[in-house]
Amino acid sequence: MDPQLLTTLNAARRNRQAAVLVTELEGGNARLVMRSESVAGDLGAAIGKTFLTGKSGVVEADGERFFLNVHLPSPRMVIIGAVHISQALAPMAAMTGFDVKVIDPRTAFATQDRFANVDLVADWPEDALRDRPLDAFTALVAVTHDPKIDDWPLISALQTQAFYVGALGSRKTHAKRVERLMQAGLSQGQIARIAAPIGLDIGAQSPEEIAVAILAQTIAALRKPEDTGGA
């Protein structure tokens, strides 16, 4: 690989940016396409599909053959609230490939006994996320029901274009949340990205069923953003 391309690709990896290395199979010319870039024609459509599926491979586009080598940051799920739903959701999300972190400053909830083998931080979200902030490949799941804990990460997720933002609570609870977030300076468009009530509407009742609904909605936002409003 061209040294300059390798340097650019390594920088993208460090910054958790998605990129596709596009190589012409006939001539061997290569270029790096970032997810934020627009590419016209059939090649652009193929690159867009590759970003969504995360699968590298050979494509024919615009009369040529290309190898698309996709480099995606691993998806993260940050769960705010060490509650019963989180106990079910954290291992399920990890099994489907998410890098999972559970954050809750309430030490009575955030215990290793309740979250064995889970990256658990008993601290306020703004402190727990200081060294590894939210980004476009992060799903933010806020389930504490406590504005003092949930609001900051919700605001941060919306400002950093996290691909999924969900918050637990009734419509009445969410209406009050909307008022607070607007007062914090967020636009109606930003706030509209919050999945609330959280999770797909499958009639979930138990914490485990709610966890399934949340995980399914998160995966849809990652793999089918055009259908779910995700980034």
Quick tags:
single chain; Rossmann fold; 2 domains; five-stranded parallel sheet; four-stranded antiparallel sheet; 9 helices; 9 strands; 40% helix
Sheet bearing the most strands, described? 5 strands, parallel
Uncertain segments:
none
Computed structural class:
alpha/beta
**String of helices and strands:** HEEHEEEHEEHEHEHHHH
Strand order of the largest sheet: 7-6-5-8-9
- In CATH, the homologous superfamily of the largest domain goes by the name NAD(P)-binding Rossmann-like Domain
What distance separates the N and C termini?
A: 30 Å
Per CATH, the class of the largest domain reads: Alpha Beta
The CATH topology assignment of the largest domain is Rossmann fold
Number of helices: 9
Q: What proportion of the residues form beta strands (DSSP E)?
A: 15-25%
Total number of beta strands: 9
CATH architecture assignment of the largest domain: 3-Layer(aba) Sandwich
Shape: elongated
Q: What's the alpha carbon Rg, rounded to whole Å?
A: 19 Å
Mean pLDDT, to the nearest integer, reads 92
Q: Percentage of helical residues?
A: 25-40%
Query: How many domains in all?
Result: 2
Detailed description of the structure:
The protein is an alpha/beta fold and 231 residues long. It folds into 2 domains: 3-71, no CATH class; 76-228, NAD(P)-binding Rossmann-like Domain (Rossmann fold, 3-Layer(aba) Sandwich), CATH 3.40.50. The chain has 9 helices and 9 strands. The protein has helices at residues 3-14, 41-53, 84-95, 125-128, 147-159, 171-183, 188-191, 207-223, 225-228; strands at 19-24, 30-34, 57-61, 64-71, 76-80, 99-103, 119-121, 138-142, 164-167. A 5-stranded parallel β-sheet has the order 7-6-5-8-9, sandwiched between helices. α3 (84-95) crosses α8. The chain is elongated and about 60 Å long.
